[in-house]
Acyl-coenzyme A oxidase
Amino acid sequence: MEGVDHLAHERNRSQFDVNDMKIVWAGSREAFEVSDRMSRLVANDPAFRKDNRVHLTRKELFKNTLRKAAYAWKKIIELKLSEEEAGRLRFFVDEPAYTDLHWGMFVPFLKGQGTEEQLQKWLPLAYKMQIIGCYAQTELGHGSNVQWLETTATFDPKTDEFWWPGGLGKVSTHAVVFARLITNGRDYGVHGFIVQIRSLDDHSVLPGITIGDIGVKFGNGAYNTMDNGVMHFDHIRIPRNQLLMRFSQVTREGKYVQSDVPRQLVYGTMVYVRKTIVIDASNALSRAVCIATRYSAVRRQFGSQDGVETQVINYKTQQSRLFPLLASAYAFRFVGEWLQWLYTDVTQRLAANDFSTLPEAHACTAGLKSITTAATADGIEECRKLCGGHGYLCSSGLPELFAVYVPACTYEGDNVVLLLQVARFLVKTVSQLVSGKKPVGTTAYMGRLQHLMESTCKVQKAEDWLNPSIVLEAFEVRSARMSVECAKRLSQFTNQEEGFHELSPSLVEAAVAHCQLIIVAKFIEKLQGDIPGNGVKDQLQKLCSIYALFTLHKHLGDFLSTSTITPKQASLADDQLRSLYAQVRPNAVALVDAFNYTDHYLGSILGRYDGNVYPNLYDEAWKDPMNDTAVPDGYHEYIKPLLKQQLRNSRL
Ligand SMILES: CCCCCCCC/C=C\CCC/C=C/C(=O)SCCNC(=O)CCNC(=O)[C@H](O)C(C)(C)COP(=O)(O)OP(=O)(O)OC[C@H]1O[C@@H](n2cnc3c(N)ncnc32)[C@H](O)[C@@H]1OP(=O)(O)O
Ligand SMILES: Cc1cc2nc3c(=O)[nH]c(=O)nc-3n(C[C@H](O)[C@H](O)[C@H](O)COP(=O)(O)OP(=O)(O)OC[C@H]3O[C@@H](n4cnc5c(N)ncnc54)[C@H](O)[C@@H]3O)c2cc1C
């Protein structure tokens, strides 16, 4: 009962309206209502139970996922759920499945790359799930380097192996396949094709194709609900019209016709998914932070006053590890919202043949995907440690969350490879300044380069660090100076590619600095808008300052070595940060309640809404199959003879 009392007390002392914050977190009242309804629907249906996952074998786990996916689809049809509702329902089912790839990559790829005629043929089938699709791009030998994919699509194809595509191993009937298009003896580079891979009658793999699952992945359960697959083609023939031809066509005579658009549009689905992954980072991090915050308020160690020990959330070290993660979850939420806007904007421009913002959209999605997933993966692990020994139990929900989440640093583009793309974009932006090209969008600050190279930070006392324009300028100065330094060093190389290779570690750091600036800038921008709700804006302002000042603290080397700030100003930033932690402390539990997660979705005894941790941890332990019998299997074969042996030895 102790825990129950504590969380109620925590909620009573918060200084803002948690219901209003729930709406800010969800993005709008409508989005909140949909999420709330779908999360309860899933939580209240025993068919979606997930607490038994860790005890299942891989085959049982996978079949269980198929059952849930089929049941979810039945519900979607029965309840006539909208696309948004269906997406939220799948989200709260909280189990990686082939449906993620079908809805998340196959359908978007068709929509983005198909002609009207192709859309009419394939989309209705995909929407009704009469075909199930996956996204087969990565090969055994090439993942990051898409241009060097070896699979060819010609009139006389060679053979090759795909490796990794989710949903491919056991379920998909169709795949979007990436291959080099060769016609009339000429190689036109990588294109997307739709290929049927399994029979729609008996699900057998079609002749000439070999498919299997690639094997058990990291973590117990975790991402093993997904059938990542291997596929081998041996002289497969597909009709010409299964090349997705919105941007380039092959005529009946085999002539290649390229529309007047950048070839990079074939990568459009990756941009779309990278954008989604940023919002998903805020989902995963907020979930871990919710568990760690509630548990830190329940857990007591040392420092007994009046016979009660201190709640671990009151330790300053606990706060300095936890609250930056809380702030990051909100920061990633808002930058994700902005990225959604940027994506919609670039899509509308592309439709009007305006390709000017495509490089910016690519750089932002690639860079933000990298730094939000890296911070989230590290953050989940930090939350596990923040929960002490209990965090290591699967019933804390954290080990599984970590294992499911970490591949986000690799899939949809390895994080370092993607940051190097941002670095290229930055170097290009700096070099174009010389020719007088005005930078726009997220690099607009480079247009004030002279000022940024000369300016000095105005902070004189700790409170000055609460001034958004001072903070913003510090991040701009650091980023601009790092990019310029890289560009200068690069110009000393006669071979630019060689220089880029040699300086790549510094270039990655410059890219990180630029992306962190975007996150800080978008958080500040969000706060300049109308944010209704009692005390809501005030809390968000504190979180924004925490995100910025903690990032500054963590990357202090950058800020000092670029002379953006002085050591004294760094120390003032730390003072301000400590003060902010103290101000957030009474609101911490309410700030995680605002995520509106059900206990089902959290899947954590430590993160229970009621805080009733200990009796449930205890009960859960007894449910473990290891405790079915007091004497374990194997006692007679392996323990008893050993004990007897020891007895004989001790008598000697
Ligand atoms: C609500 C719940 C939602 C849950 C959401 C969770 C989502 C999870 C969903 C599914 C689970 C995971 C599924 C995973 C799927 C996959 O992993 S699919 C495979 C993904 N593969 C990759 O990402 C490969 C990474 N590599 C690349 O993208 C590229 O090869 C590259 C590294 C970017 C390099 O490309 P390339 O060799 O062509 O490039 P360059 O010569 O360097 O560049 C040429 C110019 O093109 C520009 N460029 C590159 N990419 C793009 C792009 N996507 N858009 C626009 N422009 C692009 C590049 O900047 C160069 O420009 P420049 O010439 O001006 O310098
Ligand atoms: C869980 C999961 C699901 C996936 N699902 C799919 C799917 O559905 N469909 C699909 O097609 N693919 C899928 N993939 C594959 C994924 O997209 C690739 O693994 C990813 O793009 C990374 O490519 P890679 O494996 O070739 O890594 P590599 O490129 O081999 O990376 C290995 C190391 O080399 C470094 N490196 C590589 N190139 C450079 C460079 N130019 N400069 C500096 N360092 C470099 C990387 O940073 C990394 O440290 C999935 C992967 C995972 C883990």
Summary: The pocket of flavin-adenine dinucleotide (ligand 2) is lined by residues 101, 135-138, 143-144, 164-166, 223, 228, 407, 410-414, 416-417, 420 (CB under 6 Å). The chain has a mean pLDDT of 94.
